[in-house]
From TrEMBL:
This protein's record includes keyword Kinase: yes
Regions annotated as coiled coil: none
Cofactor(s) in the UniProt record: Mg(2+)
Species this chain originates from: Pontibacter amylolyticus
Gene3D superfamilies (alphabetical): 2.60.200.40, Probable inorganic polyphosphate/atp-NAD kinase, domain 1 (3.40.50.10330)
Keyword Cytoplasm: no
NCBIfam families for this protein: YegS/Rv2252/BmrU family lipid kinase
Any single Pfam family the record assigns to this protein: YegS_C
InterPro entries assigned to the protein according to its UniProt record, in alphabetical order: ATP-NAD_kinase_N, Diacylglycerol/lipid_kinase, Diacylglycerol_kinase_cat_dom, Lipid_Phosphate_FormReg, NAD/diacylglycerol_kinase_sf, YegS/DAGK_C
Protein name in UniProt: DAGKc domain-containing protein
Domain DAGKc: 8-138
Keywords: ATP-binding, Kinase, Lipid biosynthesis, Lipid metabolism, Magnesium, Metal-binding, Nucleotide-binding, Phospholipid biosynthesis, Phospholipid metabolism, Transferase
Domain of life: Bacteria
Length: 299
């Protein structure tokens, strides 16, 4: 683990702000950076995204120019985009969490308020984490097939944001959700089942401290798979309780696997997501771990 303050040249930080993300309470993040970043130690610039998909370009450009850290200012969607631009480079991802879930920030124990997150960046702790891919698309927190992807698709079309919207959606949609048969291969074993959800966890949680894979270690080179077969109301309650208590669910509600990769096939078009971003439908999925592929500023 290196300390940024040890570097001989003054390290540069780029802050990438997604102006569309964040709670309704407006904080002038640029002003907070001016106030709290250690300007004796670090140079910085601030750029704003103009459109979805802009952040990877801005991050890639900064990595090519030798910036020490690129800080994603936004929710997990922005974090995902910035991190994509930093994969396999020496530039570390920093986070100022501004989303409703903040899954990666929570897993990496980044402070959740703007001022504290900036002061945390000053400490300059760096380490490396794994990332994953689902059908080639990178993810850093979780990806999934089934109900979680369905919720991300409904959420994407909803104007409302935040935890309450998520909970309302889940309660409304869970009763109507149609389970589909899949064939998955995990660690050489073939599983054929009616699927509610198959979640692929690099970090332990979806965000909002909802733990889908409590044992997940973001640095072990392994993916934690949580398989939930057909769900009834009793199992749904058991699973929800376990997720909020940061404990594995009982064996008849969910099964957990550690693996380097998974393939899934189905005769039906199924939805998938990466870090809560809805990615559309497919009949075949390949999920892979990419060990130690991203530097981060984390505890
Ligand atoms: N300038 C922009 N205009 C429109 N969309 C943008 C812009 N910049 C980034 N985006 C898109 O906004 C999406 C959502 O961002 P993000 O997840 O950070 O915020 P959020 O939706 O408020 O957070 P959460 O998902 O935690 O509620 C990103 O996936 C990104 O593609």
């Amino acid at each position: 683990m290196a300390d940024l303050s040890d570097m001989s040249k003054r390290p540069r930080f780029r802050f990438i702000i997604n102006p569309t993300s964040g709670p309704s309470s407006r904080v002038d993040v640029a002003a907070r950076i001016k106030l709290h970043l250690d300007h004796q130690k670090f140079d910085h610039d601030i750029v704003y995204t103009d459109y979805a998909g802009h952040a990877p370009e801005l991050a890639r450009e900064a990595a090519a120019q030798g910036y020490a850290v690129v800080v994603a200012v936004g929710g997990d969607g922005t974090v995902n985009e910035v991190a994509q631009g930093l994969l396999h480079t020496e530039t570390a991802l920093g986070i100022i969490p501004r989303g409703s879930g903040n899954g990666l920030a929570r897993h990496l124990q980044v402070p959740l308020t703007v001022d504290a997150a900036i002061r945390f960046l000053n400490q300059g702790h760096r380490s490396q984490i794994d990332s994953g891919t689902i059908n080639g698309r990178p993810f850093f927190t979780t990806a999934g097939i089934g109900f979680d992807a369905y919720i991300s698709s409904v959420f994407a079309g909803s104007k409302k944001r935040g935890l309450q919207t998520y909970v309302e959606l889940i309660l409304k949609e869970v009763r109507n959700y149609r389970h589909l048969p899949v064939k998955a291969v995990i660690n050489g074993k073939t599983i054929e089942t009616e699927l509610f959800v198959m979640a692929f966890a690099n970090a332990a949680q979806y965000g909002n401290n909802a733990y889908i894979a409590p044992m997940a270690n973001i640095r072990d080179g392994l993916l934690d798979v949580c398989l939930v077969r057909k769900l009834d109301m009793f199992k749904a309650l058991q699973l929800s309780y376990a997720m909020l208590a940061n404990k594995p669910a009982s064996a008849d509600s969910a099964e957990y696997f550690k693996t380097e990769g998974v393939t899934v096939q189905t005769d039906h078009e199924m939805m998938h997501h990466a870090d809560g971003e809805y990615l559309g439908k497919a009949k075949e999925f390949e999920v892979r771990m990419v060990p130690q592929s991203l530097h981060v500023v984390a505890r």
